[in-house]
Amino acid sequence: MKKITIDPVTRIEGHARIDIYLNEQGRVADTHFHVTQVRGFEKFTEGRPFYEMPSITARICGICPVSHLLASAKACDAIMSVSPPETAVLLRELIHCAQFVQSHALSFFHLSAPDLLLGFDSDPARRNIFGLIEDNPDMARAGVALRRFGQEIIEGLAKERIHPSWIVPGGVNAPLTAEVRDRILGGLPAARKLAVRTIEFFKTVLDNYAEEVAHFGTTPTLYAGLVDEQGNSQWYDGLLQFKDPEGRLVAADIRARDYPEFIGEASLKDSYLKAPYFKPLGYPAGVYRVGPLARLNASDGFGTAADAELAEFRQRCGSVVHSSFHYHYARLLELLHGLDKIERLLHDPGILGTHVRATAGVNCLEGVGMIEAPRGVLIHHYKVDENGAIRWANLIVATGHNSLALNRSVAQVAEHFIDGDHFKEGMLNRVSAVVRAYDPCLSCSTHADGTLALDVRVFKPHA
Amino acid sequence: MPEKVSIRIDGEYVAAHEGQTILEVARAGGKYIPTLCWLEGISSVGACRLCIVEVSGVGRLLPACTTPVQDGMSVTTQSEKLQHYRRIALEFLFAERNHQCAVCVSNNHCELQAMAQRLGVTSVRYPYAFPKLPVDLSHPRYVLDHNRCILCTRCVRVCAEVEGAHVWDVGGRGTRSLIVCDMNRPWGDAVNCTNCGKCVQVCPTGALAEKGFAVEEMVKHDRNITRLAARRGGPA
Ligand code: SF4
Ligand code: SF4
Ligand code: FES
């Protein structure tokens, strides 16, 4: 095998490598998706007080610390056997929605819009946020503004943008002030307008990407997501359910602590990622996806004004949508829903309550916290001794759930687009773009932080 | 009446009396000397070596907190050499244990961290020891995390001298030294501990903390101990 190119492609959160092997005819014979960093997070938390876990685990990821804080705090709530006060729940939901808005804005505008707006085959030197600023300054500005809107909410609540120490076991550590609430409400209409405009724009370019839509990871899988009693997608407190590729419910009402009955974890030989699968179907038949697209497939709707856009999405793409290309579309719909949800939460009479934290010691030796992170279902599972020292921890992160599907998608895109005899950079870009469609956070999947790079390597047989 | 002596600190003449330490005299004169293990109101042990000063005619650097003044002494409290050695002392404290400030209960309220900022220590030039150390969570209200302990022994002294319980001691030797509780048993099993929390309040770092506090939430109140000790007439 001879290496013909190494192309470090940035614009993904984490560090991964894709190897593509060509046969004599220059077509793709095999692909391997490796994640190159080492795990170890579960090991070094051993012996730490359980209530430190939110802040420790938030350090796993600089992009979605709020998600880890929340999943971890919920696992701690379970260990303390407390339900946080009503206001604390509302506030946790609020910061969570803000995190969705800023994370989805980052993924769409900064990481994927350069492909979608400038073209997969455009000059790689300009195919980034700076190229976008030059060619489509309005779109770039919308991205920056939406991201800032989400971040300012987080900052207003937690006084610190990254790794807020505001989310604590039992609730949050300070109430919301009327002034911050009004400031957020004041910014909402403009943010919503930007989101709507972006969705409109996205719909107009969608038809240019028919080939990508048809080949970007279209293999049907199961879909998993959290829902409320009405079957609407729930990001903070729902019950987990799985639907099959035809949209039939195959498992529902799964509480956090029951996840091990439904989710098994296989080790992959090429990667440090664990590969979760739907247990009742076994490995590898139980491949499922999580994240924006999967949430839409697994639930009935949003339960907010964003449902109108969702209806149009389903009309255009079907009631169960398999192409991973549509993660982008789904992400934009969720961005809109997130803004709607923020508005609803801010108008809740309980939001300004001042009782925001429940306290307790160790009342249960095991706790599981499960939420929807922007990238999909996130589970924190801890076991402690009677004193509250962590004895064992397991984290299942969104990119882990998706790893089997992601592998298949990479193979599908490579097989379709790569022609070793007429090699072009845009072919490789599509391979990394399908990875970006999932918006994988590989640093957190491997529980180490690091620089952001995805290497795509192509090997061809020796002449 | 203790005999009056006269010494020079950084060139200025100051009046003192016999039995005072260099640190006491310097502080009374409004001079700053960095300290970590020293705490007003309990005895001084000279453990951290941050308060080192130069005394003319003496080849070694001396800890100001334990060195008594002598008539005619000339003391230098700030110099490049002192700065150099104080930094080394501080860097060793960081290198010896596992200080992850970002996830620490004492972050932003920590004397060790504040000292690093004050002395301009932004990185550690020595290899970290990364010792594998336990966290004692057995006490119902408090927690001892050896990873953040700098062995200043303030806890040992306040417990013995102010509370009168003498729960804490230092066990082991050299780099293996650890704060130990009641002849080396889990804190929760200590027979002498009164749960007063004085050790927690005087601990300059996140090593001793109240349970259940999240990152940055632990704010200490060591002035209370100083006031209490003063009312009782100073160190035993
Ligand atoms: S004790 Fe102080 S220096 Fe050590 S980790 Fe905590 S904040 Fe940092
Ligand atoms: S536990 Fe705190 S007070 Fe006691 S020796 Fe260690 S750092 Fe000093
Ligand atoms: S303060 Fe003097 S040696 Fe620590």
What is the topological layout?
The complex is a heterodimer of chains A (463) and B (236).
Chain A: E1 2-9, E2 15-22, E3 28-35, H1 41-44, H2 53-58, H3 65-80, H4 86-118, H5 129-135, H6 137-158, E4 167-168, E5 171-172, H7 178-206, H8 210-215, E6 222-227, E7 239-243, E8 249-254, H9 259-262, E9 263-267, E10 274-278, E11 288-289, H10 292-298, H11 307-317, H12 327-346, E12 366-373, E13 376-384, E14 390-396, H13 398-401, H14 403-417, H15 425-437, H16 442-445, E15 453-460
Chain B: E1 4-9, E2 12-17, H1 22-28, E3 52-55, E4 62-63, E5 74-76, H2 80-96, H3 111-118, E6 135-136, E7 142-145, H4 154-163, E8 168-171, E9 178-181, H5 198-202, E10 208-210, H6 222-232
Parallel strand pairs in B: 1-5
Antiparallel strand pairs in B: 1-2, 3-4, 3-5, 6-7, 7-10, 8-9
The structure holds iron/sulfur cluster (2 copies) and FE2/S2 (inorganic) cluster (FES).
What would you say this structure looks like, in words?
Chain A has about 475 residues and is of the alpha+beta class. Chain A has a single domain, classed as Cytochrome-c3 Hydrogenase, chain B. Chain A contains 16 helices and 15 strands. Chain A has a 4-stranded mixed beta sheet, covered by helices on one side. In chain A, strands 8-7-6-11 form a 4-stranded mixed beta sheet. In chain A, helix 5 crosses helix 6 and helix 6 runs antiparallel to helix 7. Chain A is globular, with a radius of gyration of 21 Å. Chain A starts with a strand and ends with a strand. Chain B is an alpha+beta fold and about 240 residues long. Helices cover about 25% and strands about 15% of the residues of chain B. The mean pLDDT of chain B is about 95. In chain B, strands 2-1-5-3-4 form a 5-stranded mixed beta sheet, with helices on both faces. In chain B, strands 6-7-10 form a 3-stranded antiparallel beta sheet. Chain B folds into 2 domains: about 80 residues, Ubiquitin-like (UB roll) (Roll); about 130 residues, Alpha-Beta Plaits. Chain B has 6 helices and 10 strands, in the order E-E-H-E-E-E-H-H-E-E-H-E-E-H-E-H. At the A-B interface, helix 2 of A face loops of B. The complex binds iron/sulfur cluster (SF4) (2 copies) and FE2/S2 (inorganic) cluster. The site of one iron/sulfur cluster has 12 residues of chain B, from helix 3.
